[in-house]
Amino acid sequence: MIDCLTLEIRILGKRLYQKVMEDVDNNLSLHQYLILGQIIANGDCPITQKRIEELFSIRRSTANHMLQLLEKNGYISREVSTADARMKVIRITESGFQAHDKFQTHFQQIEQQLRNGFSEPELEMFRTMMRRIWNNADMEM
Q1: Residue 125 predicted with pLDDT over 90
Q2: CA-to-CA distance for 51 and 1, rounded, in angstroms?
Q3: Architecture of 5-138 per CATH?
């Protein structure tokens, strides 16, 4: 392995992404699965595009594009809010639930595989080091 932390993190991230996206619906991106998960986590509480933008720190155009694809493929529906006619409430469809459940099962299997052979203290140390790396990356040069 090359002694370059930036490159090693990039390679690891890419490998993990490829592993997570194996054997799942290719119509959806990881971000779209995460959006479906957030809609489900919201339960009966309506969620709007604006809230999706805030939660994922994405631009309006990006959120709109992802939600359009989710709607086109039948994973969500968007309805005019009864509280404010200018907003649309996002609801998940049965297809959305099924796609998310399949993804979640696959994701949990990968998570178990990654944790294999590590103790909880080792995992916590890893998280601490990752946070330090994130903080260092955010520092001004």
Answers
A1: yes
A2: 41
A3: Orthogonal Bundle (1.10)
